[in-house]
Amino acid sequence: MVYLTFDDGPSRVTPQVLGILQQENVKATFFVLGDGAQSHPDLIREIRAQGHVIGNHSYDHNYKDLYSGFTHFWNQIKQTEEILKQITGERPRLVRAPGGTAGHFDDTYFNLMKQAGYTVTDWTVDSGDSARRGVPAADIVSASAANLKASRVVLLLHDGSGHEESAKALPRIIEAYKAAGYSFRTLDPEEDPVQFKVHGNKAMAARPRPQMSWVAANIGPTAALLKGDRPLVVEAAGSSFTLKPGEYSLENGRYYVPLRAVVERLGGQVTWDSQARCGRVLLSGRPIMADASGGGLTVTVDGGERTVPSSVALRGDVLWLPLRDLLGTAGYASVSASSTPEERRVEAS
């Protein structure tokens, strides 16, 4: 089995590659850059239309930014993901780190990407087409087909700008693998990926690690989003709105939601009191204080204050809390939850 993979596109080289693959009836996996996808959305659509698989290769391939800390890498992956979602309607789970994971990834990168639902993959054979500018096609063919005895080959090629020789080499690469009896497949995020071993260094050890609040605000919601989990429909006193997967979380049987997003959809108002570290809410005519320091929810009713214990917490820079607690303090006496294969639902009255 051989998996042809192309990094750094799309570019003006990509149509050449697509034409050859179509002629040879071979499917491949394209790890695309976000800035290239923005510039060439038509090529992204063409890659998908021809039945190839699209993976995420960061936004701009900037090593200094990507490997200065995990949150920088994450931001580029998410930026590209949103661009591809706009173009194709899908969020790719396959990710290839620019330059590969060796010397770049540590356990933090690997573990958090896996927890978020991504499959990070390297390669088993390097075509050498990016070793220097203008590597001749003959050299690329030679490196690509140097070992035709391995049972599984993940071949690294490039279709970024300046890689015309890679396109020129492609027909002979395909011919060599076909002659050796290989079949061609695309990478699957559900299959075990090829990953280089972690070799730490001083630079990696000095990199900042994400705070737990950042992890809670980003990793879990993304995992839900990539799983294609069900939306949460909230109906309260005639108002109805939907939270998409990733816009809420289900933890220990409770729905947790971002305070501002829900209050505003219910017609209320929220302001952030940075000095008191709390969200000040006006909902259903009731002033409510959501204390991010562990004080729960304090509601003012008929001139008196009542405090309700609640797991209010800052996740990143967003206040999250249990939906049932928020609805209860807002005066909804009855809150019920149900679910179907298509959606989750909370009704309050």
Automatic annotation (TrEMBL):
Source organism, top-level taxon: Bacteria
Gene Ontology terms: biological process: carbohydrate metabolic process
Domain NodB homology intervals: 1-185
Upper taxonomic lineage: Bacteria, Bacillati, Bacillota, Bacilli, Bacillales
A GO MF term: hydrolase activity, acting on carbon-nitrogen (but not peptide) bonds
The protein, known as: NodB homology domain-containing protein
Alphabetized PANTHER family for the sequence: GLYCOSYL TRANSFERASE-RELATED
PROSITE patterns noted in UniProt: NODB
Signal peptide: none
